[in-house]
Design a protein that fits this description.
The structure holds 2 protein chains of 2 kinds.
Chain A: H1 2-57, H2 60-70, E1 82-84
Chain B: H1 16-43, H2 45-56, E1 57-62, E2 69-70, E3 76-88, H3 90-93, H4 98-108, H5 112-119, E4 127-133, H6 135-143, E5 149-158, H7 166-169, H8 181-185, H9 187-190, E6 195-201, E7 207-215, E8 223-224, H10 229-245, E9 250-257, E10 263-269, H11 282-285, H12 288-291, H13 301-311, E11 319-321, E12 326-329, E13 332-335, E14 342-344, H14 345-351, H15 354-362, H16 366-375, H17 402-408, H18 418-424, H19 426-429, E15 433-434, E16 449-450, H20 454-467, E17 485-495, E18 498-512, E19 519-526, H21 535-553, E20 565-567
Parallel strand pairs in B: 2-8
Antiparallel strand pairs in B: 1-6, 2-3, 3-4, 3-5, 6-7, 9-10, 9-19, 11-14, 12-13, 15-16, 17-18, 18-19
The chains are: A mainly alpha, B alpha+beta.
């Protein structure tokens, strides 16, 4: 009887310790998850900002003014355009 | 005796009722405890659990961002980006030293006096120091560690294309809700739904456990428009310079895909910058091509001729006497800008003769024209989904007086929006079929509704091609290298029940290339104030520039022989 009691006591102690470790691990994983989610949100925000930046730099208005002023480009007029017709395959 | 060995106290002889009283009292106490336990555990448990959870559980608001608006090639037209607002508690901030306040002001790029003014109001728990700044700047401000200063997450909507897209995309209000344009029309789809979740926080405010997700946040969905940003930019630039050059009060330009009915570009003047709406007026935000009505004038004549050809009352070469340029109908006089004599039906379109159109019209029953106009979508909202779509004025044909029937043939006595008339021209680019309009990108070819036969559509197209050639009303609408067709319109503006003969609406509607139409371009200028006001002088050049640039931009093969250097493909070409 006493031996059985001792055995049960040991099992209870082991179980208690197991509960503590698993709870601790759950907390740690949870904080990792929190961190990862925060990073995801941050990256997402950065992505929208980069999209916005790209959209702003790539507006036709800016492209046109850079092409005309800085690069000295102009659109070809019909007299200087050669049209090449490709053979249908 | 065993009994005698007991302690002397126990030898005391007590009354039997005393032990019973004690027993009863103890039993009563236990009964009370059991009842209380039952009351707490059984009856009141929900309330108590909620109270307990409230000590450590917190509900966190999860923000959702609004969906982006993109053009047909995926270019962002409206995009939400998170920003921070810097707030302060006046009481706390008031006790801060001057040096810190100056540092705060520097970080916020405002003057220290401005901060002092803002926190001077002690009755407030909370003031905004600066709204909607970048997260980086906010991090610097918060990094100063000044007590009473904190940040608040908000979303700000940006429109990279600015005024070019203003009327199409519209804008949102301070609460991130759509107010104009697509932002309003597709608000339900764009708007995200905020979510919330329940967590357990420890004493330091760190989240230690997720209890449950009450509502997952749902980000808004994206909306892909039919608009092509490059065409839109082109249209905007040309319309703006035309409005300025002609000193017009306003103007609109619409480009439709001739084969799918998609709206590729839609611009109006005056415009505004949706990113900075501090001084924007209703005159600027109005999407004129959709909400404003005008009497279209001669751009309606092709429909009159199409109806007449269709019912067989005339052929393209039937001769119509238009006489000396004026004609009386029921006490009214209609006139041409100059006498044309006897001309063919084709020349009625080419020379834009009002009398010719009226005479053709009066050979048909009013029902024929009234039904076609109705079927073309005049007097009915075009159902693009744009807010504030105008339906236009079209009186029922059975109430038309003869003069009305006559003026209706050349576009007076009826009012339409520019978008409606551009759409009606799809019958000429689609072998007689009218296409439904689309503002959102279309995946499949829509099913058109046949209103006239392919032969009639082709015959009227030939007449409209004559109108843009020398001898027509709009030779300036020609596009080098391409065959185009179109019709001018110059109408007096209705005013006080009559017409003001000094105020005009000049328009041009056309399409190209004629062999296989790709685009329909409709231009309208409101009250051109320059020396020229005719549709052929004001609208046609805009059409020509826009159509030419659009066709070249989309690499459409030229179909007019001999006007461009065409080079045959080389043998064994190496790219």
């Amino acid at each position: 009887m006493a031996r059985l009691n001792l055995l049960l006591l040991a099992i209870v102690i082991v179980c208690a310790l197991a509960v503590i470790t698993s709870q601790h691990r759950a907390r740690r994983l949870f904080s990792e998850l929190e961190g990862a989610q925060a990073t995801a949100t941050k990256l997402n925000e950065e992505w929208t900002q980069l999209q916005l930046e790209q959209g702003t730099w790539a507006t036709n208005k800016r492209v046109e003014s850079v092409a005309l002023r800085r690069l000295g480009m102009r659109s070809p007029d019909p007299a200087t355009t050669v049209v090449i017709t490709l053979e249908k395959q | 005796m065993k009994f005698e060995k007991r302690a002397p106290q126990l030898r005391l002889k007590l009354e039997g009722w005393r032990s019973r009283v004690v027993f009863a009292l103890v039993a009563l106490a236990f009964g009370g405890l059991a009842a209380r336990a039952f009351f707490l555990q059984g009856l009141n448990t929900g309330f108590l659990q909620a109270k307990g959870e409230a000590r450590y559980g917190r509900v966190i608001d999860l923000p959702a961002s609004r969906g982006p608006v993109k053009d047909r090639n995926g270019q962002a037209l409206a995009i939400s980006t998170p920003v921070e607002s810097i707030c302060a508690t006046p009481d706390e901030l008031d006790e801060v030293e001057d040096a810190q306040l100056r540092a705060l002001a520097r970080a916020l790029a405002i003057s220290p006096e401005e901060i002092r003014q803002k926190i001077a109001r002690k009755d407030r728990q909370f003031v905004y120091l600066k709204r909607q700044i970048s997260p980086e700047q906010a991090a610097k401000v918060i990094g100063l560690g000044i007590p009473g200063v904190f940040q608040q997450r908000e979303f700000r909507r940006y429109y990279p294309a600015g005024e070019v897209m203003a009327h199409v995309v519209g804008f949102t209000g301070i609460e991130d809700n759509g107010q104009e344009g697509i932002e309003l029309a597709a608000d339900e789809r764009l708007a995200g739904a905020r979510g919330s979740r329940k967590v357990i926080k420890d004493r330091k405010g760190r989240i230690v456990e997720d209890v449950e997700s009450l509502r997952a946040p749902r980000d808004g969905q994206e909306v892909v428009l039919a608009i092509d940003q490059r065409l839109q930019f082109l249209a905007h630039r040309e319309l703006k310079s035309a409005v300025e050059a002609n000193r017009a009060r306003g103007g609109s330009l619409v480009i439709l895909d001739a084969r799918t009915g998609e709206v590729l570009a839609l611009v109006n003047q005056p415009d505004y910058n949706p990113n900075n709406r501090a001084h924007v007026t209703g005159r600027q935000t109005r999407n004129r091509s959709v909400t404003d009505l005008f009497e279209p004038g001669s751009t309606m004549k092709p429909f009159t001729v199409a109806a007449a050809l269709e019912s067989g009352v005339v052929k393209p070469d039937t001769m119509i006497p238009t006489g000396a340029g004026s004609m009386a109908i029921g006490g009214w006089t209609i006139s041409d800008s100059h006498p044309n004599g006897t001309i063919s039906v084709a020349q009625v379109i080419q020379k834009s003769s009002n009398i010719g159109a009226a005479k053709i019209q009066l050979q048909m029953p009013a029902e024929r024209m009234g039904t076609l106009y109705r079927e073309l979508g005049f007097g009915i909202p075009p159902q693009t989904g744009f807010p504030g779509e105008a339906r236009g004025q079209l009186r029922p044909w059975d109430k038309w007086r003869p003069i009305e029937q006559a003026t209706m043939s050349y576009g007076h006595g009826i009012s339409v929006s520019l978008l409606q008339i551009a759409r009606a021209y799809t019958i000429f680019t689609n072998e007689g079929q009218l296409l439904p309009l689309a503002l959102v990108k279309r995946d499949a070819q829509p099913i058109g509704k046949r209103l006239v036969s392919p032969e009639t559509a082709a015959q009227v197209t030939r007449m409209m091609e004559m109108a843009v050639m020398p001898g027509g009303t709009a030779p300036r609408a020609q596009v080098p290298g391409y065959r185009v067709a179109g019709k001018t319109g110059t109408a007096y503006k209705p005013e006080n029940g009559g017409y003001n003969e000094r105020k005009y609406v000049s328009s041009f509607v056309g399409f190209g290339p004629v062999t296989r139409p790709r685009f329909i371009v409709a231009v309208m200028l409101d009250e051109p104030g320059g020396p020229k006001h005719l549709g052929g002088d004001v609208g046609a050049p805009v059409f020509s520039t826009v159509m030419g640039a659009a066709l070249r931009m989309m690499a459409v093969a030229p179909d007019a022989p001999g006007t461009l250097n065409v080079q045959a493909p080389r043998e064994g070409s190496e790219g």
